[in-house]
């Protein structure tokens, strides 16, 4: 439980520290790099959900973001935890958030659906794949994250 609480706190801190980039249609939410943690430790799933929920409450995008964004993070985390390798674990947050968050942001902002999906997917890809995979491989090789099948 302590690890989950720590993950939630780090998620909130990173989201708020990079607030201009963490919210809106075009976003690069640095805290989403943590969405790869369920692949290594299942307890990270609930920490991510709580952290995303709190970050979205404080982010000011409204109930759609609080409930929709948090649910998307939970679904992506559950899928990442069951992934066969780090690449699948990184793909789930990109796909789930692009569709879910892109979908409701399109409705809220009036920006075309495919454009909002592309914006969210690009930001998630940058954080989860470009930054997240190398970071997790590095930490795994140093023994800080333990997973035998990266």
Radius of gyration: 14 Å
How many strands in all?
A: 0
Beta percentage is: under 5%
- Given as residue ranges, the uncertain stretches (5+ residues, pLDDT < 50) are none
Termini separation: 25 Å
Overall outline: globular
Notes on the structure:
- The protein is mostly helical and 150 residues long.
- 75% of the residues lie in helices and 0% in strands.
- It contains seven helices and no strands.
- α1 runs parallel beside α4 and α4 packs antiparallel against α5.
- The model has no long low-confidence stretch (mean pLDDT 93).
Gist of the model:
By secondary structure, this protein is mainly alpha-helical. The chain is built from seven helices and no strands.
């Amino acid at each position: 439980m302590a690890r989950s609480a720590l993950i939630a706190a780090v998620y909130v801190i990173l989201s708020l520290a990079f607030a201009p980039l963490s919210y809106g249609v075009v976003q690069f939410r640095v805290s989403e790099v943590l969405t790869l943690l369920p692949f290594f430790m299942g307890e990270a799933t609930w920490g991510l959900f709580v952290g995303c929920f709190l970050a979205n409450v404080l982010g000011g995008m409204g109930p759609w973001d609080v409930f929709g964004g948090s649910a998307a993070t939970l679904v992506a985390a559950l899928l990442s935890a069951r992934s066969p390798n780090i690449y699948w674990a990184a793909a789930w947050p990109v796909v789930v958030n692009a569709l879910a968050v892109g979908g409701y942001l399109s409705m809220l902002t009036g920006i075309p659906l495919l454009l909002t999906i592309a914006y969210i997917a690009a930001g998630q890809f940058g954080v989860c794949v470009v930054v997240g995979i190398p970071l997790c491989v590095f930490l795994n090789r140093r023994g800080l994250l333990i997973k035998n099948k990266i």
